[in-house]
From TrEMBL:
HAMAP family: RRF
Family membership: Belongs to the RRF family.
Lineage: Bacteria, Bacillati, Actinomycetota, Actinomycetes, Micrococcales
Gene behind this protein: frr
Pfam families reported for this sequence: RRF (PF01765)
Name under which the protein is recorded: Ribosome-recycling factor
Tagged with keyword Methyltransferase: no
Length: 184
């Protein structure tokens, strides 16, 4: 029973770490990266639709991105969604077939803002992992009547080690992203 709780907790914490890494990828660095637009929702006929379902993304140069919509009627909506995207600072252009997004050069001040943003996303991810730990600890405490206290204590030690391991993974990803952001 304790092993089941720990296995489920491990899976949930791993998903939380993966979500944090995906979240970090949406913060731009000096290069144009299609992952920046992973979470961008476009108002397509009144329905918020992920950009990846509406268009293909190509990265021909370091600071530009080409968005080719599958449906040409979505061009204006895609252009507007990119323009309204927070923390991007890009001005998309529409030539009737594609949307070209040229990323402006990052200033030192803007890089520091992005580092703060990534740190807050990292802290949110750590809080989520700790919430998963808290829920797993409650599940372990509920098992006290079925198994011995020594087993519960051993399970809690394993749970703490798991939590520490996943928080460290988030910290490592955060350090890599921070270094990437500050790289000129």
């Amino acid at each position: 029973m304790i092993a089941d709780v720990l296995a489920e907790t491990t899976a949930r914490m791993t998903r939380a770490v993966d979500a944090a890494k995906e979240d970090f990828a949406t913060v731009r660095t000096g290069r144009a990266n299609p992952q920046l637009f992973q979470k961008l929702l476009v108002d397509y006929y009144g329905t918020p639709t992920p950009l990846a379902q509406l268009a293909s993304l190509a990265n021909p140069e370091a600071r530009s991105l080409i968005i080719t919509p599958y449906d040409k009627s979505a061009l204006k909506a895609i252009e507007q969604a990119v323009r309204d995207m927070p923390n991007l600072g890009a001005n998309p252009t529409n030539d009737g077939n594609i949307v070209r997004v040229t990323m402006p050069e990052l200033t030192a001040e803007r890089r520091k803002e992005y580092v703060k943003l990534v740190k807050s996303k990292g802290e949110d991810a750590k809080v989520h992992v700790r919430g998963i730990r808290r829920k797993a600890k409650d599940e372990l405490d509920a098992l006290k009547s079925e198994v011995g206290e020594d087993e519960i204590a051993r399970g809690e030690k394993e749970l703490d080690a798991l939590t520490r391991q996943h928080v460290d993974l988030i910290d490592d990803a955060l350090k890599r992203k921070e270094a990437e952001l500050l790289e000129v």
